[in-house]
Amino acid sequence: MLILGFESSCDETGVALVDASGSATPRLLGHALHSQIEMHQAYGGVVPELASRDHIRRVLPLTDSVMQQAGLPLSAVDAIAYTRGPGLAGALLVGSGVACAMAMALGKPAMGVHHLEGHLLSPFLSADPPEFPFVALLVSGGHTQLMRVDGVGRYQMLGETIDDAAGEAFDKSAKLLGLGYPGGPALSRLAQQGSPTAFKFPRPLLHSGDLDFSFAGLKTAVLTQVKRLANERPEGPATPQLAAALGLAQKADVAASAQAAIVDVLVKKSMAAIASTGLTRLVVAGGVGANALLREQLNAECERRSLRVHYPELHLCTDNGAMIALAAGLRYQAGLMPTTLSEPGYRFDVSPRWPLASVCIAA
Ligand code: ATP
Ligand code: MG
Ligand code: FE
């Protein structure tokens, strides 16, 4: 069972081919990715119309590259998966349109995959795949959630952010420091030269007794600190000049302290989720899962408690086609994938705001 997967929900065009034959974990046969980060950088964030147009330009050459890596013709593909949502409507329509057109031309089934299910299952492509059940910490640019995962399609929300996502907190803090977009990786690099205890940033909801998160206050705290260091009035505007008034050491201290606050909350809440479920395995997924400090602290806490912790490979933490093809493969193996053209999954449609709950099977 060869499944070709397309990801185009935001600013990465990803295409991948997996072999989901039998019951072994699906195997990656080819994988290609184009990131639009450079194109959007000039605007300080993703420009949806530019994103859609670039997906159109990239998707077919990437598909050729994937089939070449696998040494197979397109006609060998048995099913086509695409990210149906959540994401930018125009960007999603490119992947969905190409996938469904290709499926129709080949006479093969097409299947809309939930982007977060892709992230969530991406550690299954690593050399050390997890076993069910586990607690999942999903930390991406748009989401921060703790879930109990009992199997493919069996996801129970334990807690989530009530405002900004962890990735957003990284990106917004980085922007205030003049580190460009998306600033998460740059902020974490700069933090290596700073002191994590230089400034005491808030850890909201740390003792709330539930598993929810809140990161909106961190941005304000970072902004206030940056203004203080730049000798600006607290009520003054947040301008790009603020960061320019700071020395490198000051910026590094702000970066290290902000990162420490975000990571501290993520680690403590993950351990609280483990304690409340009684499970012994933690799975981390999403772009922020690439963060070195987060991995270091989670590894230490899990070792102390004799827990197993699993991550996606570094290059599969952020958006990619492999996780979409994989999620389709795992769903197929679990009997959850439509296998004929006439089934409802075979439709040219997208769902920019698609709740994960709607792809769950009853517990
Ligand atoms: P979603 O999946 O919720 O729709 P997304 O697809 O934009 O959002 P991802 O691609 O999973 O999110 O992750 C991107 C985010 O990960 C960005 O916010 C980025 O700054 C952050 N990120 C990537 N690498 C690191 C890192 N090393 N440290 C901290 N943050 C990081
Ligand atoms: Mg991205
Ligand atoms: Fe994503």
UniProtKB/TrEMBL annotation:
EC numbers, comma separated: 2.3.1.234
Keyword tRNA processing: yes
Listed InterPro entries: ATPase_NBD, Gcp-like_dom, KAE1/TsaD, Peptidase_M22_CS, TsaD
Chain sites annotated for binding substrate: 138-142, 171, 184, 291
CDD domains from the UniProt entry: ASKHA_NBD_TsaD_bac
Enzyme class: transferase
Names of required cofactors: Fe(2+)
Gene Ontology process terms (BP): tRNA threonylcarbamoyladenosine modification
Limits of the Gcp-like domain: 28-325
Main subcellular localisation: cytoplasm
Binding residues for Fe cation: 115, 119, 319
Job description of the protein: Required for the formation of a threonylcarbamoyl group on adenosine at position 37 (t(6)A37) in tRNAs that read codons beginning with adenine. Is involved in the transfer of the threonylcarbamoyl moiety of threonylcarbamoyl-AMP (TC-AMP) to the N6 group of A37, together with TsaE and TsaB. TsaD likely plays a direct catalytic role in this reaction.
Name under which the protein is recorded: tRNA N6-adenosine threonylcarbamoyltransferase
